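Researcher: Let's try something more involved. This one mixes different molecule types, so please make sure each is placed in the same coordinate frame as the others.
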Amino acid sequence: MFAVLRDLVRYNVEFTIGAILVAVIVIFACLSFFSPVDPTQVYLAIPDQPPGAQYWFGSNSRGQDMFWQLSFAFRNTLTFGLTVALLSRIISIAVGLAAGYLGGWVDRVLMFINDIFVAIPIFPILILFYFVMRSNLNGFTLALVMACFGWPYDARLIRSVTLGLRHREFTRQAVFAGMSPAKIMLEEHLPYVMPIIFATTMANMIWSIGLEVTLAVLGFTNINIPTVGTTLYWANNHSAMVVGVWWWILIPVIIVVLLFIGLFLLAVSLNEYIDPRSRLRRMGA
Amino acid sequence: MAQDNKRRDILTVEGLKAYYQMSYFGVDREVRAVDDITMTVRRNEIYGIAGESSSGKTSFIKVLAAALRPPFRVVAGSVKYDFSSGPVDVADATDAQIEAIRWRHLSYIMQGSMSVLNPVRRIGRTFEDFAARPLGLRGKAFEERVVSHLEKLKLPADVLRAYPHELSGGMRQRVTIGLATVCRPEFIIADEPTTALDVVVQKEVLSLIRDVQQEMGSSVVFVTHDMSVHANMADRVGIIYAGRLVEEGPTRQMFFAPKHPYTAHLVASLPRIGDTTQRPALEGRPPSLAAPPSGCRFHPRCPLAIDKCKTDVPPLQTVAPDHRTACWRWQDVQPLVSPHAAHGVMA
Amino acid sequence: MTTLLNVDNVSKTFAMGGLLSRKTTAAVQNASFSLAAETPEIFTIIGESGSGKTTLARMILGLETPTTGSITFRGKPVGGATKVERMAFMAAVQPVFQNPFEAFNPLKQIDRYLESTARTFLGLKDRTAVERAMDEALQTVGLSLAEVKGRYPHEMSGGQLQRAAIARALIPNPPLLIADEPVSMVDASLRMSIVNLLKALRDDFGVSVIYITHDLATAYYISNRLIIMQRGRIVEMGDARTVLENPEHPYSRLLKASVLSTEDAGDGKLATNPDMVALATRLATAPGGQLVSRPDGRLVRVYEPV
Ligand SMILES: Nc1ncnc2c1ncn2[C@@H]1O[C@H](COP(=O)(O)OP(=O)(O)OP(=O)(O)O)[C@@H](O)[C@H]1O
Ligand SMILES: Nc1ncnc2c1ncn2[C@@H]1O[C@H](COP(=O)(O)OP(=O)(O)O)[C@@H](O)[C@H]1O
Ligand code: SF4
Ligand SMILES: [Mg+2]
Ligand SMILES: [Mg+2]
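Model: All components are placed in one shared frame. Result:
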């Protein structure tokens, strides 16, 4: 793993740029743990100050220091994105491996469910959830709901890889070595699927963060939790652009765009590692 | 005379050493898969290479084909080709130089045809990937050329639209031979081209390779552990044992007057229909190339070994025209089969 | 006399192609034979590529269900119905596969398969006992645990891989081994040692072997009985020596004539009589025919005159 990372950094510019961007934003988000201010409190800072020495990212019309405010927002947003990615990866791995390896009716049932989830429009469902749960809708619940919609495409991808692996002789060798289906799936086949999982994690995070921002801007999430989306919601609410508090909107947008570019570059460079052939080549086969 | 020899030989390998050098967490491991091989291949000749598994046949041929990648490296020696486009030493050629000769002058049929053919690409696309650039043809002209070439290999034009898994083993092997020969290369390298084919198809594929070779006047180096294939295909045979060439000579002499105990054993170990006498398998096991035996590498398994064999490496010396062997006791090697002993049985 | 394995009138048809151009391949047609439990034997299946040998082997291993007909092992359908039965079946019938380069997961170390076999089928828990079982099996095939441990498949040559695969299959001491072209990728000397090994397994350990091969010479050398297959059909069946010394079916004759001999080494003889090829090719697609028995005990497929 370490050698792979080292080679990636050495030979792959996309990876290096992506990794730096994402790392900087993650560090920024982690600063919130040392924040001197409570992000839910208002009017602690002088309102509407432009970026400068005292408030690096300026302050907003609600009297919050935007540096710390955004630090919290990105922490929550990243945690949200990672949670969705993690949960949906677990579902897609389980479904993809089982459908591909076990085949037969298991495959048919799982792929039927898969198709249903592909067909259901996610946006109205999320709004429905908001109306039902209102202020009970915290970040984790939302992540859980979105994870339920974030797996079907990737599960199909994983299934297609395992379908190929199922017919290889080494799989039969494993069967006759007495390995259980679970062991074969997790130990024999998962390594082939791992690169896909890495690459789709990035794409999935871009998708879920984007959707969260959209929902929040429209006010369909819990607006008291600072996230990138709710930051923009409040900015919009106070007509930030109209009153000239541009930094309230521009800075989070720039950081989010940089985050997306970083994740995208990581996904692209990891894509090269999807091909197990290239992995074998690196092992010297 | 020296000048003549030069034109006669298309490939000259000198003192070639190529090792797998690996390091796992700081522990270095070195597998000396090709250890000091010197040989030549002539124009318009079929040179067979035999040896047991893991003796380094594939490794040697990878160097000849300039298809080696880390951790496999050439450590010493040269591999000089004398192509019509000019001489090349592939042991230290640049990627661009190798790119320029690949397929047009030098082609390589790898072990296991499936690994060459991309399972998700139709055969026609694979042909384009490999041969369109070297041939400098495109579209219709390219396809016509390929189809007429496949015809020679008795393959219907339909195979171009097939995926590899839709073809039988024999057809796949013919496709890879087609790939390797469509650019009419001067030098063809084949690694176990007929292993895992049934005897009928094997014979077909072998005579095909030979027909193509004779028609184009190319040289062929091919590796197989199957001595009966060498008996019927090769003009000359070289035997590799533990990374070294131990004997080389004209096919007939290698079979009926071998001058190395290992060759004598290989020839005698062939079972025949009609003969159920217990065939001796060689005692001991193949030497490890990471720590090969001292002196003559065959000495732990050799029935003729003397003390000298344990310490001194026998040189590869000429014992008859075109016939070289690396054995201290070559005069004492008895052929274990005679040309006539086999006849009665097969009648 | 009890039967170990009984293959009864088994056929397998594969559907190929898309929805519109559906073609079916009859990979195996009406195959019947049986192995007795008391007399371990090496039963050879010979045939051209694509004649259905592997398909037949896969059905015996319970990896494929016959389209028609049935296969039983010790009186029970192969494969086993419950998990317990299946494990018992797998411990008793072990495979050796065709391609040593595909035999192990390229991303995994080889010893894990041996270890798993020893743990599941021998029920061994203790590390040293597991390693002893692995080493014993590896020693039988001319390897040792020290050589194999921690190695990835690409670090071993084809012959080493195949021997490791056979060693793995031998760990549970199975009464029946299904070896699908186990020697096609190894050299003559090693081929003889593996073939001698199969012979020793039969003679000394009472293991029956279904030996699938292209190599008529080793088939002659070790097998008791054999069947010759062409396009999914058994064309000749009988005592190995009788059949190979004097094959009767045109395809069997072509097979024997295609064996490369070494007695005229260096003469470059590669031509086969084209009439023989033509006749054998014609019979491959000839309709029906049936197996009739001959006085010397063999069965030969004869066709209705056309
Ligand atoms: N899964 C499958 N789907 C479709 N056709 C198949 C499948 N498996 C085998 N076949 C076809 O069945 C026939 C018999 O194949 P099989 O693999 O049993 O041949 P074989 O005798 O083992 O050949 P070889 O000597 O090349 O290993 C072939 O025509 C093959 O194309
Ligand atoms: N990629 C590799 N890394 C390390 N060792 C290798 C590799 N490939 C082959 N070897 C070792 O090199 C030796 C020669 O192998 P090879 O040339 O494939 O033999 P052959 O073709 O004669 O069977 C063997 O000991 C084998 O284990
Ligand atoms: S040199 Fe000695 S050990 Fe080597 S082959 Fe000759 S007699 Fe045998
Ligand atoms: Mg090889
Ligand atoms: Mg087969």
